[in-house]
Amino acid sequence: MTGQEASPLMPLTPLTSWISSWVGSSASSASNLPDEKVEDEDKWERERAFDIADSLENGLAREIVTEFMHPLRRASKLWKFHVIRSEDKLQYRLFSDDGDFLMYARANLEARQVSFYLYNPCEKVANLFNADKPAFTMSWNADRTEWRIMQERCENCQFSPKHLTCSCYGKQQVAWIRHHRKPVGDGIFNCMEIHVPGLYSDGSRVVWCPLLGRADLSVPVDESYEAQRLLTKQPTWNDEVESLVLDFKGRHILSSAKNFQLALSQKPEHVLCQYGKIGPQTFSLDFKYPLSVVQAFGISLTTLFWT
């Protein structure tokens, strides 16, 4: 699939302040703290301090992980990122358009899982983190048609004893993706349907925890605030280049079966995410509100087997 040239996109802010300059505001976590008695507060704070220290040691600090879950702040243009793939096509690194590292992902074909980490294994500090404890995971079914992104440490259960958390029933769901194919002109179009947790009117995210009584994210979405449905934008067949074509809004895109654009189901012409090949092992990833960094990155990696 090929792209067409258009107007340039908005540049990114540096990563020095993490990704807080990109993400939208959310309800304060302070309002979610347990309503403990005064005499229990000191004990609770000590336990939380130890928990955060352990999370930092494993590269899983909740305060940092949450930043990757927030949707990018509202903007008229797409925010620009790029993905670099390893030669074996099993490792991926997400960078801002300015070259700042954001996230690393590694696919395990035998386990049918992609693990996401918030550190770069190429850096010297990588040995300080536990590779057995990713921040997020994404699994796929045997026929590679359904994918599911999960957060390893649930936001709803983060202050509960382990035996009372959703880890006994599943994990916090971040996105569900279904693939299928359809003919368009003389080509074959790889399609996606995506369900992601929605947003409340105050901008805070819906937490998809199994203990909150919500149905699985794969259940058909009723277009309410609780979940949102995204679909791939259908390309057109171009007889001149004998290929399926999409307008990538300023990106010079190479022909690839992995190229795609996404839009909300109720606004099919309003592109909010696009992924396209720009080099032998490099892909552009541009997206905006209401997607988060991990959702967009994870969705792009579901093209792992697309040909």
Automatic annotation (TrEMBL):
Q: What InterPro entries has UniProt attached to this entry?
A: Tubby-like_C, Tubby_C
Q: Which residues belong to any copy of the Tubby C-terminal domain? A: 79-303
Q: Which domain of life is it from?
A: Eukaryota
What Gene3D superfamilies does the record tag this protein with?
Tubby Protein, Chain A
Q: Where is the signal peptide?
A: none
Q: Which family does it belong to?
A: Belongs to the TUB family.
| UniProt protein name | Tub-1 protein
Q: What organism does the record attribute this protein to? A: Symbiodinium natans
Q: Which gene encodes it?
A: tub-1
